[in-house]
Specification:
Layout lengths: L21 H4 L5 H10 L9 H11 L5 H18 L13 H4 L2 H13 L2 E5 L12 E4 L25 H7 L4 E4 L26 H7 L4 E7 L20 H11 L3 E6 L7 H6 L2 E5 L6 H10 L34 H4 L18 E6 L10 E4 H6 L5 E13 L5 E11 L13 E12 L4 E9 H4 L15 E7 L2 E9 L1
Parallel strand pairs: 2-3, 2-4, 4-5, 5-6, 8-14
Antiparallel strand pairs: 1-6, 7-9, 9-12, 10-11, 10-13, 13-14
Helix pairs in contact: 6-11, 7-11, 8-9
């Protein structure tokens, strides 16, 4: 077992205590050593209790030179002075509630929540839903409010009337509600980022399955601060509690089920994703999270986001999470992992419309001769040195029926075959991206990506920041289609 956070540190002087799992990270072993290393390295402020608890004693007994403390205090106050925090006329003191909560900021919160949504599946064009569709909102997030705020948030009352259910009812949608199950059956008092004391209460599932007899069941599941938060990692990628059983019962009762998954990290639920007709991935949408989801479900907006991570099968947890070599032991992240995945990094449909992408660039296309970049040239290059083609212009045309956004990803990928780079090179890496907004049906817009050595080879930097890449052939792809090829020569 790990030591308790402050194991052995209840008494002073703190000569032998090892707080915060010191034996686990093996970088420092006592509070005196930790304080000395931290202050010497320039950590002037500590947002936790460490400095406040120990520094006074450590300076008094000589473990930490007073001059180090003086330097830290001087820099903290110098920063405060530069920001005007000590001035009576400091502009920050004039900020009030309306400085934060105003119409512009509310609009921005709603836009951010809408643009974060990722439509992963939409069989039979089940979405968007018509205004007359009889709906059943089911699951622990169907009527969630504060849970959408996630970790590290201020006081927010707007969210209390903005759950998906409350939003749907306020808009007059024909909707019924059944919770089915909780994410966690009992939340401990104090910090919410604690494990549940019990789980698996399935007593509400029969009522949820009965509610699923509506025209469409919208099932809201996911994670919250009882299953993921700072200082509390998940030990698996599945859904906590009885949510898997809830999904199975609802989908069996109504195959016309939309699965809305809320959470900050990947949720590996391959059976549920396969069984549901539509899958909408939602992060913690904040104060407007519920409204944004209802907008997407009803077609008020067209969800066009892309997954910012890979959704693996749960077997990935067998890999040692402490192994920070991303290429080691089968690899991790979309840059190095080559095994099967539930949904890849960058997955996401283009909402309720379709887009055609074409590339206008020198030496573009699969038939063009590969460009050449030497390793010596690459090592000498600085971040802003132009790539040989300089720029890549992408034309985006809406060939579908409704206005929508298009998220365009530009990736670099190593080629397979006899001239493939060494395995130490990333399988692929994100070069650049953009979001082209509100493109009308039939409209075509263009976006130019300025390609530099730093942009193309951003994932090929060593520990000292120098750009490098193994010899071999590479491809630059726009939305999965080859834009140009190049090779790195010795």
């Amino acid at each position: 077992m790990q030591n308790a956070k402050w194991d052995g540190c209840k008494d002073t002087p703190p000569t032998t205590c090892k707080p915060d799992w010191f034996p686990g990270h093996n970088f420092t072993h006592t509070v005196a050593e930790t304080a000395l290393v931290s202050l010497t390295s320039g950590t002037d402020n500590n947002c936790g209790p460490f400095y406040g608890t120990w520094l006074n004693y450590l300076v008094q007994n000589g473990s930490v030179p007073e001059a180090l403390l003086d330097t830290a205090v001087t820099r903290v106050y110098r920063t405060a002075l530069l920001l005007g925090l000590l001035d009576a006329a400091c502009p920050f003191w004039a900020l009030n509630r309306t400085s934060v909560d105003n119409s512009a900021h509310r609009d921005l919160a709603l836009r951010a929540a809408r643009e974060s949504l990722v439509l992963l599946k939409n069989n039979g064009a089940l979405l968007p839903l018509s205004a007359s569709t009889k709906l059943a909102f089911i699951g622990p997030y169907a009527n969630a409010t504060q849970q959408f705020l996630s970790n590290y948030h201020g006081d927010n009352l707007l969210v209390n009337s903005g759950s998906p259910l409350q939003t749907a009812m306020a808009r007059g949608l024909p909707v019924t509600y059944a919770r089915g199950c909780n994410i966690c059956d009992e939340v401990p008092s104090g910090f919410p980022n604690m494990p549940c004391t019990k789980s698996g209460d399935a007593s509400g599932i029969p009522a949820a399955a009965a509610a699923a007899a509506a025209d469409v069941a919208v099932l809201f599941v996911g994670l919250d601060q009882t299953s993921e938060a700072e200082n509390f990692d998940r030990n698996g990628l599945g859904l906590p509690g009885a949510q898997d059983a809830l999904i199975a019962a609802v989908v069996a009762a109504n195959p016309r089920t939309v699965l809305v998954v809320v959470g900050g990290g990947p949720v590996s639920a391959p059976l549920a994703y396969g069984a549901a007709a539509s899958v909408l991935h939602a992060g913690y949408g904040g104060q407007a999270g519920g409204a944004a989801i209802v907008d997407a479900l009803t077609g008020a907006t067209s969800p066009a986001g892309k997954l910012p991570f890979t959704i693996y099968y749960n077997s990935i947890t067998a890999r040692d999470i402490r192994d920070v070599d991303l290429a080691h032991d089968g690899g991790i992240t979309h840059m190095y992992f080559e095994g099967p995945v539930v949904f890849p990094f960058g997955a996401g449909l283009t909402g309720y419309t379709r887009f055609a992408f074409s590339v206008v660039a020198p030496a573009a296309g699969a038939a063009a001769a590969p460009l050449r970049v030497s390793r010596a040239q690459l090592r000498r290059a600085v971040a802003r040195t132009p790539f040989p083609v300089g720029a890549l212009t992408v034309r985006v045309k809406n060939v579908g029926p409704v206005v929508g956004d298009a998220v365009v990803l530009v990736m670099v990928r190593r080629r397979r075959g006899p001239r493939a780079p060494a395995a130490t090179a990333p399988v692929q890496a994100l070069v650049d991206f953009t979001r082209v907004r509100t493109v009308a049906p039939g409209e075509e817009v263009a976006h130019t990506f300025e390609l530099t050595m730093g942009v193309v080879f951003g994932a090929f930097r060593g520990e000292q920041g120098a750009y490098d890449a193994p010899v071999g052939e590479y491809e630059l792809l726009v939305e999965g289609s080859l834009a140009l090829s190049f090779n790195v020569a010795a």
